[in-house]
Amino acid sequence: ILFSSISGLLGGAAQANYAAANTFHDALAHHRHTHNLPATSLAWGLWAHTSTLTADLTSVDQARIRRTGLRPLTADQALALFDAVAFGDAGLPLVVPTGLTSTAEAPPPLLRGVVRQTRRAARTASSAGSTPAAGFTGLTPEQRSAALLDLVRTEVATVLSHPHPHTIPPDRPLIELGLDSLTAV
Ligand SMILES: NC(=O)c1ccc[n+]([C@@H]2O[C@H](COP(=O)([O-])OP(=O)(O)OC[C@H]3O[C@@H](n4cnc5c(N)ncnc54)[C@H](OP(=O)(O)O)[C@@H]3O)[C@@H](O)[C@H]2O)c1
Predict the structure, then answer these.
(1) 44 CB within 6 A, ligand 1
(2) Average pLDDT of span 169-181
(3) Domains recognised in the chain with CATH numbers
(4) Which ligand 1 atom minimizes the distance to the CA of 72?
(5) Is residue 3 over pLDDT 80?
(6) What average pLDDT does the chain have?
(7) DSSP secondary structure of the chain
(8) Is 80 exceeded by the pLDDT of residue 141?
(9) Is 97 in the pocket of ligand 1 (CB under 6 A)?
């Protein structure tokens, strides 16, 4: 039994190296299966119980995780899932024990079949997704600047869990607002 993380499957802000290391576990389990050797990689979602690993998660991190539709597992739930895998006979190379909400603001593509995107978020994404540029045609240059500022502020506020997007100062570098290049992407 290998302890891996769902971040290897979904990615996660500032977790590129962690994601890669966990995917190695998942791949090792697959590799062993091709040689008829036992192995199951458990790609855990977040546990509610704070560990050394999760002690540094801030409320902003927690909010970002919630927006993806992941819900922390209680220890009882996690242990029951562990038992189901360890003492079950499915013999799968990869199992993803995680808590999920039924709807979320920004479910990653892999979860979209099980976590519905909330309607408000879906609308924002689809109006922005049908290329923001399309919405800008027909606007005057001044209106375009305002619409673009509004779009960037909305996106930045979502990532930072900022409650008042319109107060985000447009002349302040994103890095000073707490966005590094990865969160910006
Ligand atoms: N907690 C979560 O929500 C979560 C979610 C997804 C995946 N996971 C995965 O689950 C596993 C456990 O996570 P955790 O949150 O319980 O982490 P943790 O609190 O940091 O515990 C890690 C454990 O690994 C031991 N350890 C670290 N380096 C070691 C080494 N070189 N040799 C032997 N033991 C070593 C530590 O021992 P010491 O205490 O002696 O240092 C500690 O007992 C990790 O693989 C993590 O990626 C956790």
Answers:
(1) yes
(2) 85
(3) 2-117 (3.40.50.720), 131-184 (no CATH)
(4) 3
(5) yes
(6) 88
(7) -EEEETHHHH--TT-HHHHHHHHHHHHHHHHHHHTT----EEEE--BSS--TTTTT--HHHHHHHHHTTEEPBPHHHHHHHHHHHHSSS---SEE---EE-SEESS--GGGTTTSEEPHHHHHHHHHHHS-HHHHHTTS-HHHHHHHHHHHHHHHHHHHHT-S-GGGS-TTS-GGGGT--HHHH-
(8) yes
(9) no
Q: What distance in angstroms lies between residue 80's CA and the mean position of ligand 1's atoms?
A: 19
- Report which protein residue has its CA nearest ligand 1's atom 8: 5
CB of 5 sitting under 6 A from ligand 1: yes
53 lines ligand 1 (CB under 6 A): yes
Question: How far, in Å, from the CA of 53 to the mean position of ligand 1?
Answer: 7
